[in-house]
Design goal:
Structural class: mainly alpha
Strand order of the largest sheet: 1-2
Order of helices and strands: EHHHHHHHEHEEHHHEHEH
Distance between the termini: 43 Å
Largest sheet: 2 strands, parallel
Low-confidence stretches: 233-246
């Protein structure tokens, strides 16, 4: 029988503690010799995911924005170690790390954020060795996602490094980075967006655009394939000088 993650009734660190934990693991990576630019951009990603999750949660009028923010900050804490060196996926590293430091109720988000579809396929995750994949696969069979798990998955889709992007762009970046032609969970990524829009009567893409003072641009022929988040045309050049979003 599957168990349901219950972050609201669990022991979560307060917001300020979560900020300190996030800053600490980023500093740990820099201290241990990781590229400072990469870690800085990852730090932007972490705080962007937290802010997106917080703002979507606020618009649902059901989910707790503080809980969403804390989970967003800590979802990638497994990157305290370089997975290209340890060969341990950051999702599993984070799960074990949070349990070790006394936050087992937060730990599931480290795993669930990585798998939009709990019926995972090995081809979608080439950085997972057989042992790690089996652990994740068995773990996901034992739990049931709630809307906080889904929310962090969704927020994570809109952010990559320092960039804010559409779901379509993020999926294409994933395929390019991991040299994968197709992802089995692509449709489920868009289904995730639609789930929140329909259940809570919101527009998550507009919330993301508003969060970063951007303009939601939708192509009328195929919303799913070409949705972009772009700055207003009149401010585009000035904006480009400050930030990359493509």
């Amino acid at each position: 029988m599957s168990s349901l993650n219950n972050y609201e009734k669990g022991y979560l660190p307060p917001r300020i503690t979560a900020v300190r934990l996030a800053n600490a693991y980023l500093q740990e990576r820099v201290y241990n010799g990781s590229n400072q630019r990469i870690i800085f951009e990852h730090g932007i990603h972490v705080f962007n995911v937290a802010k997106i999750a917080e703002n979507i949660a606020a618009q649902t009028q059901t989910l707790n924005p503080e809980t969403a923010y804390v989970l967003g900050l800590l979802h990638d804490i497994g990157r305290i170690k370089d997975e290209t060196v340890t060969k341990v996926p950051h999702s599993l590293e984070g799960y074990n790390y949070l349990r070790k430091i006394g936050y087992p109720d937060v730990a599931p988000i480290c795993i669930t954020h990585n798998f939009i579809d709990p019926n995972i396929k090995a081809d979608d995750f080439p950085t997972y060795d057989e042992k790690s994949f089996k652990f994740a696969q068995n773990y996901l069979k034992k739990i049931k996602y709630n809307d906080y798990d889904r929310l962090i998955q969704l927020a994570d889709l809109f952010s990559r490094g320092k960039e804010i992007m559409s779901i379509r762009q993020r999926l294409d970046k994933n395929k390019q980075f991991y040299h994968i032609k197709n992802l089995s969970y692509e449709d489920k990524a868009f289904d995730l967006r639609d789930y929140f829009n329909q259940k809570y009567q919101i527009d998550v893409e507009q919330i993301v655009a508003d969060t970063f003072n951007l303009h939601k641009h939708t192509h009328t022929n195929d919303d799913r394939a070409v949705f972009l988040i772009l700055p207003p045309a009149q401010n585009y050049m000035a904006y480009q000088n400050k930030r990359s979003i493509v």
